[in-house]
Amino acid sequence: MATALITGASAGLGLEFAWQLATAKHDVVLVARNEERLTRLAAQLEAAAGIRAEVLVADLSVRADVERVADRLRATERPVGLLVNNAGLGLNQRFVPGDLADEETALALMVTAVMVLSHAAAGAMVPRGRGAILNVASVAALLTSGTYSAHKAWVRVFTESLAVELRGTGVTATSLNPGFVHTEFHERGEIDMTAYPEIAWLNAEDVVATGLADVRRGAVLSTPSLRYRVLSAVARLAPRSAVRAFGRYRRSFQGQETDAPTVG
């Protein structure tokens, strides 16, 4: 089985990716900032699944750390056959009065790191004639949820473009586009999501299972759950003026002065 490298592996969807891939007998490379969490997770995965789990502590908003992860993707020993670009964050602030340094951190993490790591992975995989890149975007890519939407729109279009370029090489690129998911994501961003009904939420286990199944069949776009596929279709077909109006209504409905992401 190929080795899988997962960013943001210490919590949320990244943690679920690690467990599902390890259970499927893939060796894993776990990337995140929290060394204690990663070390504990690696021990659990090795004990439960009998696979090899490497720990690579890195802050992917720091370019030097991104390059260390890129070097692991380029390595010929225990080559990485699946890259999961999952690391992300939510900013609980509006853009204009917000902290620009925080915006630059988010951009580096969710755009620059995805580009650099995808370049390193594809560059190593194409000569081997096999491999896969899974970039976690969001249904928010189709909406107007501040810079989070902009970042995820970039990930989605970039991944589609990469898939076109990789056609015929044996390497695939998939954009995973979930909606709200029960993880630590919103809690870590101090984003109040209590206004949203339970029906809007997805389970991390189902999201990850769908994403990995779509990678296996070579799908370019993966949107877990029928309700979010319908929402995505509506958002694509609706006039952009209507999408922008929905964004204004959402902020009013929440009673928040924030451009925090509405979907994970």
From TrEMBL:
CDD domains cross-referenced by the UniProt entry: SDR_c
Record-linked InterPro entries: NAD(P)-bd_dom_sf, SDR_fam
Keyword Oxidoreductase: yes
UniProt key word Oxidoreductase: yes
Database matches in Gene3D superfamilies: NAD(P)-binding Rossmann-like Domain
Pfam family, one: adh_short
Annotated keywords: Oxidoreductase
Family per record: Belongs to the short-chain dehydrogenases/reductases (SDR) family.
Protein name (database record): Short-subunit dehydrogenase
Organism ancestry: Bacteria, Bacillati, Actinomycetota, Actinomycetes, Micrococcales
